């Protein structure tokens, strides 16, 4: 059959081509999915191949391809398991490789070679049925189109003006096989493509707009939309491929034939722009409705003119005003600055498709989203911008603290920064700690999708951009700031070990691990801590530093937020006390003694060689053993020789037949030369050195300076020889080994060797040349080569190792007796770099400083450079204090009082200081009040926990049929009671501290306003102490009952800490486990003859008791309780009951119950409120997850 000159349309549907294409496409997708999982670390490799759930989820998307996700996965699972087992048996398998390297490559290779083959057999079987069904549909549709094409060719030859034209047209259309009015003449086409879309929706996912197109009133619109879609996208549709493209290309030609036939369909059924012109407008209800509703519109044309697909045929535009046609009526959407017209519509549809919303082509859905302000694209852009700001803020905050304690980091992210809000937004399982730390781009996309869904699909949902702004603001106001440095004595500059550093705002201190918080200094005086700080609030801080009863609070300027790392040296003036403290610490130090003559602490030594005595080494760091005068060491330092022994030794050492002047040599008559004595061998320089020439660590060394030198023939050179013993003490032995200058007298390179106490060293003397290998002769003079500089001895050294200046920081300090000075030696090298060279210099005068009061000088030397610092040591370290000889403490002098830092100041100064500080602290009043209210809530929560566990324990103790020593429930209750008690103590200690701080601020003008909102007036110090006092007595009662039963408290606690199975809720068990009645389960849990009752009553000793429990049939709900003015009281156990006892002052309160988890259905709970032992309120509610119910009650 010829279609308007285009040839015969053949049915070229080839089943083999179809099957091969299906197999190829599914295999590629499956393999790609597995490799993507491996690359992205989706679980472990073993998870992927050993867990059937992964296979089922993966294959579910291919159900429309003929793959059954419920039955098929077993085949693939078995194949994958077999592959993985083989991999594990491979000798190259590395179980630690996880998802990287060799293991990943092996899995990918096996997937490509074997898993793909497993799919081929399934596809081969399933594709036959798909082919059979699809071929029938194709043939039906193709035949229908060919018949229409023939008819249109015929109609094109008719006279439109003929009186019988309309009747002939209708008869012809009916001949095509259509029934009913001509306006419905594509009804059969509707059915055909509906079947295709329903059965093969996944394969032709881009054809999702077919239904909406075929519902178009204008038949020309339906045909045009349908065939234009096919021509554009048919070639990309999975499986159908060219088959569908072929089908739709025929359709395009059909449309062209219709237009060549004189535009009959368009003119008779009304297609095109909406306007108030044209002879056919009155023929369509759609156009008439538009004209009546929007009479001022000149011409609104469909968006399909530029986009050509889907619902765009039913959206019209004029001057960026949009008009939507759905449900047989028109809906206007005026242009605004926030809307982008067609761009917004396109973005909405793409987003709906991406999130899997089946209404992505539903005009009513698109319209409801489009009309909201701001426009969709703009709102999404704002979300992305703010989420990206949060991502950057989190990453910036964590870049220096990621190594700190994970639990503290998690608290910082989820509580302080409130990423908990994002966790609640996405669902608890979507944002864990590890993902929060990385804050990947996928998380931003999830946030974007969820916020958009909340805004457009939840009734009454608010704009959540303010929540994102709040998180951004918290990131800006909770910047982790690092403080570190050393605590030293201001007198001696020695580091102070064991000093206590108190951050200025304890509530802002972050982290608990030693690697990120060190508030007690180590042996080097080091401290460190992080604080989360608001740059707008904190410009200056004072750090309280205490040591041995002496305190100081130096203040420092901050440069937030540009600088978040600070290193401060904290100096404490210990005064005359420093010497006493130093002496006491020395006596406690093993291997050290106090040198009373020099007032220093030195290393002790035991002298076992006869005629030796202990003497202080030159550096004054310890004792060494030396010969008592007039005795002297023998050559190998093993014996102290008396004068008589020295004379004999000298006589014996003189050769009779020749003179061997070199050390450790003797005349060899056989060779007539001076040879090395036994145990010595000549080295490369011809020097006799011990056979084991390499000096082990800790043994003595000898150094010569200069080690190399150049002189003229007429010159001589002098050397300085330094001996360093095994203790590290160094002293000058030049006069003992070479009292005379060295005079070579002839050109060449000469070696001068020195030996002292069995240790040798050499120097090179170049006569007439450059002795230094790092020097070169220029114009007759030796100069250092490039990159080298002369040191103080003239030797050429690398520029970075040659120092031009040194200094000691601080140059002056004051410390107390018993303290050590802390200082740093700073060196400037030839490159201009400033370096810490404390460990490279020779120090003198530093040992023993702080033992007694006085003024001392510390000296540092290196490369001929020296620097000095002064250390003042006094008893108290405060000019306005004096030592109390009775108590041994430093007391303020008459007329002076200690301020908060322990410094003695006059009465007037103290008054002014306190008034000034009080005004500054008033700024913190609101924060302190909020913190105090939060702590009170914690106390009440821990109190409630403790009472519940205590009561459970006593119930078990009173059960005479039970052996308490073996009663695991009693052990668990006891262990949990101990834990709750410790938490309670900690919170009360924190509460006491905050109470004192608030009391100190009671004179602030805003005190009543700030504290009144939290109803803090009744929570005084006595109330806090009473709570812990009451629990101390009840804890003692529990311990007494344990002893009465012959048990050990520690053993019971140990049993209790391990008794709970991992799959049980400890809180539910603590409330009685299965021995506690649960409503709705139809069981008599406690065996007393009644079912499902929940016996609740007021807790004795408290004026308010609130009981909340899950009263639904499915025990899977979790609720939380918050009391206005009293704080958060914690959550109920999943599916269980919790009693909240509390002591509240008279007043009006609101109890807020939030549904945290509803088990996927609805949260069903019952609440009972008791006041002064009487039930004043009780109700049961069904509430959705995330919703809070509030109930008012009063306390008289």
UniProtKB/TrEMBL annotation:
InterPro entries with a match to the protein in the record: Growth_fac_rcpt_cys_sf
Segments of this protein annotated with the region Disordered: 1063-1096
Name of protein: Uncharacterized protein
Organism: Jiulongibacter sediminis
């Amino acid at each position: 059959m010829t279609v308007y000159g285009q040839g015969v349309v053949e049915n070229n549907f080839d089943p083999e081509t179809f099957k091969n294409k299906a197999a190829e496409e599914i295999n590629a997708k499956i393999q790609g999915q597995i490799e993507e999982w491996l690359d992205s670390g989706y679980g472990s490799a073993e998870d992927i191949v050993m867990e059937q759930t992964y296979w089922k989820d993966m294959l579910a998307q291919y159900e429309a391809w003929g793959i059954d996700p419920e039955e098929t996965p077993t085949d693939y699972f078995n194949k994958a398991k077999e592959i993985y087992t083989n991999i594990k048996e491979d000798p190259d398998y590395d179980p630690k490789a996880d998802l990287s390297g060799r293991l990943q490559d092996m899995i990918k290779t096996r997937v490509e070679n074997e898993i793909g083959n497993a799919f081929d057999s399934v596809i081969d079987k399933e594709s036959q049925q798909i082919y059979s069904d699809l071929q029938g549909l194709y043939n039906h549709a193709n035949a229908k189109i060919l018949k229409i094409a023939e008819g249109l060719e015929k109609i094109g030859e008719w006279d439109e003006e003929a009186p019988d034209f309309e009747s002939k047209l209708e008869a012809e259309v009916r001949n095509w096989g259509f029934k009913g009015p001509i306006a419905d003449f594509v009804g059969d086409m509707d059915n055909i493509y509906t079947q295709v879309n329903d059965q093969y929706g996944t394969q032709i996912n881009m054809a999702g707009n077919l239904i909406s197109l075929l519902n178009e009133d204008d038949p020309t619109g339906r045909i045009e939309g349908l065939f234009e879609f096919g021509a554009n996208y048919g070639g990309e549709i999975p499986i159908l491929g060219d088959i569908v493209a072929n089908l739709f290309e025929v359709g395009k030609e059909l449309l062209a034939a219709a237009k060549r036939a004189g535009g009959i369909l368009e003119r008779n059924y009304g297609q095109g722009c909406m306007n108030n012109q044209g002879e056919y407008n009155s023929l369509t209800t759609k156009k008439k409705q538009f004209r009546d509703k929007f009479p001022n519109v000149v011409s609104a044309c469909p968006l399909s003119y530029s986009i050509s697909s889907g619902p765009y045929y039913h959206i019209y535009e004029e001057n960026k005003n949009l008009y939507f046609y759905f449900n047989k009526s028109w809906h206007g959407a005026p242009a605004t600055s926030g809307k982008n017209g067609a761009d917004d519509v396109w973005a909405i549809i793409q987003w709906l498709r991406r999130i899997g919303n089946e209404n992505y082509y539903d005009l009513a859905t698109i319209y409801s989203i489009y009309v909201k302000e701001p426009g969709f694209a703009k709102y999404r852009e704002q979300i992305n911008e703010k989420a990206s700001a949060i991502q950057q803020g989190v990453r910036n905050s964590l870049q220096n603290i990621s190594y700190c304690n994970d639990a503290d980091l998690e608290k910082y992210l989820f509580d302080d920064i409130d990423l908990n809000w994002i966790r609640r937004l996405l669902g608890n399982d979507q944002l864990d700690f590890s993902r929060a730390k990385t804050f990947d781009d996928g998380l931003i996309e999830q946030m974007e999708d969820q916020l958009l869904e909340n805004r457009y699909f939840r009734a009454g949902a608010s704009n959540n951009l303010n929540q994102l702004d709040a998180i951004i603001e918290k990131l800006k106001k909770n910047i982790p700031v690092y403080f570190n440095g050393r605590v030293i004595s201001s007198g001696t500059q020695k580091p102070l070990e064991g000093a206590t550093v108190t951050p200025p705002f304890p509530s802002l201190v972050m982290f608990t691990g030693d690697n990120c918080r060190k508030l007690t200094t180590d042996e080097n005086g080091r401290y460190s801590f992080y604080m989360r700080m608001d740059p707008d609030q904190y410009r200056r801080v004072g750090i309280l530093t205490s040591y041995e009863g002496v305190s100081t609070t130096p203040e420092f300027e901050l440069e937030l937020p540009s600088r978040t790392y600070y290193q401060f040296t904290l100096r404490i003036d210990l005064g005359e006390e420093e010497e006493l403290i130093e002496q006491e610490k020395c006596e406690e130090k093993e291997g050290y003694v106090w040198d009373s003559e020099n007032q220093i602490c030195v290393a002790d030594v035991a002298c076992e060689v006869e005629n030796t005595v202990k003497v202080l080494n030159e550096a004054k760091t310890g004792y060494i053993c030396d010969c008592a005068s007039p005795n002297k060491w023998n050559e190998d330092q093993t014996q102290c020789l008396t004068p008589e022994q020295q004379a004999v030794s000298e006589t014996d050492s003189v050769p009779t037949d020749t003179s061997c002047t070199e050390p450790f040599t003797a005349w060899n008559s056989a060779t007539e030369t001076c040879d090395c004595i036994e145990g010595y061998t000549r080295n490369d320089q011809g020097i006799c050195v011990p056979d084991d020439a390499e000096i082990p660590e800790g043994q003595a060394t000898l150094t010569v300076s200069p080690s190399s030198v150049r002189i003229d023939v007429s010159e001589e050179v002098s050397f300085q020889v330094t001996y360093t013993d095994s203790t590290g003490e160094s002293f000058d032995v030049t006069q003992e080994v070479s009292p005379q200058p060295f005079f070579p007298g002839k050109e060449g390179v000469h070696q001068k060797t020195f030996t002292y106490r069995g240790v040798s060293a050499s120097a090179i003397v170049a006569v007439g040349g450059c002795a230094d290998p790092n020097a070169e002769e220029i114009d007759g003079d030796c100069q250092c080569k490039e990159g080298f500089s002369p040191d103080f001895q003239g030797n050429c050294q690398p520029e970075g190792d040659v120092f031009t200046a040194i200094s000691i920081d601080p140059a002056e300090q004051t410390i107390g007796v018993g303290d050590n000075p802390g200082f740093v030696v700073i060196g400037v090298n030839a490159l201009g770099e400033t370096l810490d060279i404390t460990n490279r210099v020779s120090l003198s005068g530093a040992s023993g400083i702080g033992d007694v009061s006085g003024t001392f000088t510390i000296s540092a030397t290196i490369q001929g450079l020296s620097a000095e610092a002064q250390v003042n040591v006094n008893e108290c370290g405060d000019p306005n204090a004096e030592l109390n000889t009775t108590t041994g403490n430093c007391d303020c002098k008459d007329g002076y009082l200690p301020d908060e830092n322990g410094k003695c100041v006059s009465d007037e100064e103290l008054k002014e200081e306190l008034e000034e500080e009080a005004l500054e602290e008033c700024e913190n009043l609101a924060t302190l009040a909020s913190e105090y209210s939060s702590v009170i809530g914690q106390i009440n929560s821990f109190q409630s926990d403790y009472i519940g566990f205590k009561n459970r324990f006593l119930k078990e103790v009173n059960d005479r049929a039970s052996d308490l020593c073996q009663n695991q429930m009693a052990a668990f209750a006891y262990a949990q009671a101990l834990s709750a008690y410790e938490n309670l103590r900690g919170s009360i200690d924190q509460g006491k501290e905050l109470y004192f701080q608030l009391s100190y601020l009671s004179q602030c003008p805003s005190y009543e306003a700030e504290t009144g909102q939290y109803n803090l007036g009744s929570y005084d110090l006595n109330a806090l102490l009473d709570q812990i006092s009451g629990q101390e007595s009840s804890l003692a009662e529990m311990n007494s009952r344990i002893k009465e039963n012959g048990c050990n408290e520690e053993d019971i606690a140990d049993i209790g800490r391990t008794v709970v199975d991992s799959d049980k809720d400890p809180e539910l068990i603590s409330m009685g486990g299965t021995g506690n009645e649960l409503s709705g389960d139809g069981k008599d849990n406690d065996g007393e003859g009644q079912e499902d009752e929940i016996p609740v009553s007021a807790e004795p000793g408290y004026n308010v008791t609130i009981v909340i429990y899950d009263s639904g049939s499915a025990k899977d709900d979790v609720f939380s309780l918050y009391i206005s003015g009293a704080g958060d009281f914690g959550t109920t156990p999943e599916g269980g009951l919790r009693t909240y006892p509390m002591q509240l002052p008279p007043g009006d309160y609101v109890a807020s119950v939030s549904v945290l988890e509803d088990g996927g259905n609805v949260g069903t709970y019952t609440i009972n409120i008791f006041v002064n032992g009487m039930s004043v309120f009780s109700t049961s509610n069904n509430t959705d997850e995330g919703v809070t119910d509030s109930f008012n009650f009063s306390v008289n």
